[in-house]
Amino acid sequence: MKRLRDLFKFRSKSKEHPYKKKSNKISSVQRDPKTSDHEGIMSVYHLIVLDESGSMSCVRGQTISGCNETLQTIEQMQRTNPDTQRHYVSIYAFDTDNSRYIINDQPIDDVPLLTDQDYSPYGGTPLYDALGKTLGEFDATLNKGSGIGYVTTITDGEENSSREYSLKQIQQLIQMLKEKGVVFSFIGANIDAEAYARSMHIDNAMQFTQDEQGTREMWERERMSKMRSNARMEFERRYEREAFEHFAENENIGQYYSSVATDRITPAHITSLQPGEIFVFGSNIRGQHNGGAAGFALKRFGAVIGQNEGLQGRSYAIPTTGIGEEELYRAIVRFTTFAQSHPELTFLVTPIGCGNAGWQPYSIAPMFQRAARLPNVKLPQVFWTYCYD
């Protein structure tokens, strides 16, 4: 990951992330050309290699809507980080007779939503040829500038009609691109997706059921995985530079689609605590504990007026109001250190900062990435959306 080192500067960003409703295009906001991946702006490239063989006909509608929701998610990620990210999209549909780009390396702002005319399943499954063509061109795109790449392959069957590329050639292309910072994922139905992915040197794999519900669930999981990975990437780039240098390497070890155990989720409504449990809430810089979770901690769990941080009674305060983002992160680091040194306690983290303080889970949750690895720390469901355990 040396190619990512020292390319980006820290840039502050707003706590507000305005999203817009969609029209026939993803967005009409004008962006700088991709050659301007400097001054803290990183290019993020997304390639979806999509099976359009005849057997996909039964989920045609769900595939089109899933693609569109994914495009909207990518646009949302850019709007969340308007000063630091530029996203580019390619969708390549493949079958034996009409393999082509539906979208070819376009800025997300210029990408139209897909229609029935864009995707018409027919023919066989030349998977290796599709990957060979697109990965070679994806490599050329990455070589024009520095950035992160994501390649997702979706198919409902095994390779059966490639003529130009072999499995060995695909393995070599994937390995080369992984070393250049590309994150690979493979989604399959009617095959052993994990085994098929491993045969191509891909560790991130998802199995889906090829019916309406299964296809919708697959696309939803793919969207959430993209959001989580992007949030982690942005966080590491801003605060954990050493970790960011190995970002793609770590994303390629099979955790892209990982899910969290239910016993690691903070209950949505806490009215009492079990022995050894600590209620973790967000405080203002003056430690006034006026309302919300802070007020509840004051009334029920021993929070102390005037103490804006640290253990107090059966609660732990993290300042979220009246401080900057970097200060907030340092406070969460101190909490993580405290939790690690007290394994006899279980810390129930509430959605700190995401109420009156005005922060977004996308920004706050990745700050708990190290804490998420501690077995005695539970996080709210909304934070797990953007964290790995």
What does this structure look like?
The protein has 389 residues and is of the alpha/beta class. Helices cover 34% and strands 18% of the residues.
Concise summary:
The protein is an alpha/beta fold. The protein is built from twelve helices and eleven strands.
Q: What's the shape?
A: elongated
Helix run count:
12
Roughly how many Å is the radius of gyration?
22 Å
Q: In which order are the strands of the major sheet placed?
A: 3-2-1-4-5-6
What value does the average pLDDT take? Answer: 90
Q: What is the subunit organization of this protein?
A: single chain
Into which percentage range does the β-strand content fall? 15-25%
Features:
389 residues, alpha/beta, five-stranded mixed sheet, 18% strand, elongated, disordered N terminus
Write the layout of secondary structure elements.
Blueprint: E1 42-51, H1 60-80, E2 85-94, E3 100-107, H2 127-143, E4 147-155, H3 167-179, E5 182-188, H4 193-199, E6 205-207, H5 212-239, H6 241-245, H7 247-251, E7 277-284, H8 292-300, E8 310-312, E9 315-321, H9 325-341, E10 346-349, H10 361-364, H11 369-372, E11 377-378, H12 381-384
Parallel strand pairs: 1-2, 1-4, 4-5, 5-6, 7-9, 7-10, 10-11
Antiparallel strand pairs: 2-3, 8-9
Helix pairs in contact: 1-5, 2-3
